[in-house]
Design a protein that fits this description.
single chain, mainly beta, Porin, two-stranded antiparallel ribbon
Length: about 325
């Protein structure tokens, strides 16, 4: 598995290099198109790593803000399979879904605001057979998954006396979130677009995975540059958390994360997108769970007159014990 994912990461770097090199071969200077005719934006996939996904996890955002008076409705869902273990420390074997509804509105002077409702839930998504077949198809080592109970749920962290089976299913975190974006450098001036986002979330459930009333907040900087064959993206985020534990396991109170990506535009309002997301470990002193997680996103976007559809695949690299085994995502945006 490590050999495969190392090659996977090298392919990502090579893809970005080729895309930029090919872009330099064109004779004309790229100019961003008007909104809804230009970039399709990054894949709307936040971290799906075991601990990082439980609290406010920044969504990769485009710095090309909504025009004044423009409103969008968004729906995104991800289904992830997690299987990781480290001897004498932990066993994590479960599935979860991450669902998001949002409304986004553009205002004057390059401001926009978003209100969202978010839910993360431990479930039996029946992903194990699909995950096994996917790994076999690409000759990825199963890393012990083929020896575990199929579609089982087992969360064990001995140091903190956590040992949960099927009773963990249904455990949920539900938050409301607000994000405010200010475009600092507009795409029309010929320089990279730059934007700053302020994000907050509030835990609504009284008996959920995260303590009720936990208040998370953070800031995110987004950059994008128009290329002749697409767009290059980068995000950097810092988040402060109001919750300090989950299921009795202590968590850190802050996190750095970032994303690099490339949108390769096709004809007919379509694009293939490749992203690399890294997130600081948020678990306190539990082996690999305390290290950075690394996730690769591969996806496709398609835009019509009023809708924008996206589908994505998430795979782990570098740290195989602190990222999802595999995840599948889908999203749709509707322009009012």
């Amino acid at each position: 598995m490590k050999v495969f994912t190392v090659l996977y990461f090298r392919f990502f770097i090579l893809f970005i290099f080729i895309a930029i090199t090919q872009d330099r071969a064109y004779a004309y200077e790229p100019e961003p198109e008007e909104y809804w005719n230009g970039t399709l934006g990054p894949l709307t996939i936040r971290s799906l790593s075991p601990a990082q996904s439980l609290r406010l996890s920044p969504v990769p955002r485009s710095p090309y803000g909504l025009p004044e008076g423009q409103t969008e409705l968004q729906f995104n869902i991800a289904a992830a399979s997690v299987y990781s273990s480290q001897e004498n420390l932990f066993v994590l074997d479960y599935h979860f879904t991450d669902t998001r509804f949002a409304i986004n509105r553009g205002f004057a002077n390059n401001w926009s605001a978003e209100f969202s409702i978010n839910e993360r839930r431990i479930v039996n998504a029946h992903l194990d057979q699909l995950t096994l077949e996917f790994h076999d198809l690409f000759d990825i080592d199963q890393n012990g998954r083929d020896e575990a109970v199929k579609d089982g749920t087992h969360i064990q962290i001995s140091e903190y006396g956590i040992n949960l089976g099927k009773e963990a299913r249904g455990q949920t975190s539900q938050t409301v979130g607000i994000s405010v974006q200010k475009v600092l450098a507009d795409k029309s001036i010929g320089w990279p677009a730059i934007a700053m986002n302020f994000n907050i979330s509030y835990e609504m459930l009284h008996d959920g995975l995260i303590e009720h009333g936990a208040f998370d907040y953070g800031v995110q900087f987004s950059v994008a540059q128009k290329k002749n064959n697409g767009y290059a993206y980068a995000n950097l985020s810092y988040t402060e958390f109001g919750s300090k534990d989950v299921l009795g396991m202590p968590l850190t109170d802050h996190q750095f994360s970032g994303m690099l990506g490339y949108e390769f535009n096709m004809e007919g309002d379509e694009a293939f997108i490749l992203q690399y997301l890294f997130s600081e470990g948020v678990v306190v002193d539990i082996g690999e769970l305390s290290e950075y997680s690394h996730e690769i996103h591969i996806g496709y976007k398609w835009r019509t007159e009023s809708y924008l559809f996206e589908a994505g695949l998430v795979e782990n690299i570098v740290n195989f014990e602190n990222s999802p085994d595999v995840a599948f995502t889908f999203g749709v945006t509707y322009k009012l």
